[in-house]
Specification:
CATH superfamily of one domain: EAL domain
Structural class: alpha/beta
Strand order of the largest sheet: 1-2-3-4-5-6-7-8
Order of helices and strands: HHEEHHEHEHEHEHEHEHHHHHHHHHHHHH
Shape: globular
InterPro entries: dGMP_Pdiesterase_EAL/HD-GYP, EAL_sf, HDOD, RNase_Y/CdgJ
Protein name: Diguanylate phosphodiesterase
Oligomer: single chain
Number of strands: 8
Number of helices: 22
Pfam families: HDOD (PF08668)
Helix content: 40-55%
CATH topology of one domain: TIM Barrel
Length: 443
């Protein structure tokens, strides 16, 4: 439990530990490549307030705030939530000039620079110094290729562009010129499959947005996924099956066996020795956890890519785990409430799998009415929790504050902490170093 959760009622909110908690747990947003696989995360940092005072005091407070912000990125859950992918950080000028930036490993983070910063000799000198230390820079949200952009370009590894902000002909010329200069191009705010295809045609390298989580019958993304086998397994699990019945059903789909063996041998489920048989895996994991992981596997890509690289699996798993952990800390929580919260998170994205409208898909799944209401209309406590995790996905701190106001005793700091804990769980739940070779098991 965080420091703010331990404060007695009526205590002041602006303690150092509470304020540090705002940034210890940043929000993350995915970046995908042209094949739709995860290639990084932008980490949205909530800026710490700096108290007014004399200039030396302001500078000292700013340096302390920067240290808190950058220390946050070394937290264990944050590192795990990146799942081996690089983190992209949008830095303010004070952060860029802070000595605390040395706490960031150059091979793990890209430093984003806004062209709106005052591009003066002092800034360029700082970029030269950091570039010599092998830091890589990304020009963020380029709006026009002006003089400031030209000064930053020699130090840029990549350029982020929102295609909607440019005339198509100019965008094509700009993209061609930047690619010729050897720059990586990142398309911003890609929210539809159509926008993704258009940016890909312009030879953008990476894509930031949630187009992969939108229903689209034409996307062709999961045509070969064994969804029927998963649904059959879920139906069996709902009837309280014996281990023998569950073993027989699982054997019909070796891919499910592969994922279950990995799950059973993961750190959280391990029983102190390597699980070698399917029956051992069932006993070690338990039917409840098998049911939950089966729900998440509905999102798995038919290309059988590792789940830690599949953005939709990661998003669904993070939402579900967040809903589960957060609901358990609210008043009147019980197993039924927690299970309902997990289901709400899982199926909030189900239209991206089946390609139909969300309303029709939820109706076919015959979910409880309060879960459908939470997903479709954000009603009730589950709907508020779902709104909170969506705000964190966007880095919408004001939206998070509004959601937290209705989720006492949870506050924004704790919700952000829970989200990163959930992301760390999603990034590791299907990994096990002891299971090399299991990928040979195919349908």
């Amino acid at each position: 439990m965080t420091d703010s959760a331990q404060r007695p009622a009526g205590a002041e909110v602006q303690s150092d530990s509470a304020r540090a908690g705002h940034v210890r747990y940043p929000a993350r947003a995915p970046l995908l490549d042209a094949d739709g696989l995860l290639r990084g995360f932008e980490l949205h940092l909530r800026q710490l307030p700096v108290d007014a005072g004399d200039e030396p005091d302001i500078r000292k407070a700013t340096d302390a705030a920067a240290a808190h912000l950058l220390d946050a990125l070394g937290a264990s859950d944050v590192r795990t939530a990146l799942s081996g992918h690089p983190g992209y950080l949008n830095l303010s000028r004070p952060l860029l000039f802070s000595d605390a930036i040395a706490r960031l490993a150059p091979d793990r983070f890209f430093l984003e620079i806004s062209p709106d910063l005052a591009v003066d000799s002092e800034l360029i000198a700082r970029l030269v110094t950091l570039h010599a230390r092998r830091y890589r820079f990304v020009i963020d949200d380029l709006r026009k290729p002006d003089e400031a952009f030209a000064k930053l370009l020699p130090y840029a590894y990549a350029i982020k562009i929102d295609p909607a902000h440019f005339d198509p002909d100019m965008l094509q010329r700009l993209a061609k010129a930047l690619k010729s200069a050897g720059k990586l191009l990142i398309a911003l705010n890609i929210e539809t499959h159509e926008a993704f295809e258009q940016a890909k045609a312009l030879h953008f390298d990476l894509f930031q947005g949630y187009f992969f989580a939108r229903g689209c019958k034409q996307s062709g993304r999961r045509v070969n996924a064994p969804r029927q086998a998963l649904l059959n397994l879920l139906r069996l699990l709902s009837s309280d099956p014996s281990v023998a019945q569950l073993e027989a059903e699982l054997k019909l789909n070796p891919v499910l066996v592969m994922h279950l063996m990995r799950l059973a041998n993961s750190g959280e489920a391990s029983i102190g020795r390597k699980v070698a048989t399917l029956r051992d895996a069932i006993n070690a994991t338990g039917t409840n956890r098998i049911a939950r992981w089966t729900q998440l596997l509905l999102y798995a890509d038919g290309r059988k890519v590792p789940l830690e690289h599949d953005p939709l699996v990661q998003l669904a798993a993070t939402r579900a785990r967040f809903m589960e952990l957060a609901s358990a800390r609210l008043a009147h929580a019980n197993r039924k409430v927690v299970d309902g919260a997990f289901l709400t998170g899982v199926f909030s994205l189900v239209d991206a799998v089946f390609g139909d409208t969300l309303e029709n898909t939820l109706e076919a799944l015959t979910l409880a009415s309060h879960i459908r209401a939470a997903i479709l209309r954000r009603e009730g406590q589950l709907g508020t929790l779902l709104g909170a995790i969506e705000a964190l996905e966007r880095g919408d701190w004001d939206g998070l504050d509004r959601a937290s106001a209705a989720l006492a005793p949870l506050d924004s700091c704790e919700l952000a902490q829970i989200a990163i804990t959930a992301a760390a769980w999603a990034s590791t739940a299907d990994q096990s170093k002891e299971n090399e070779g299991l990928e040979r098991i195919e349908e």
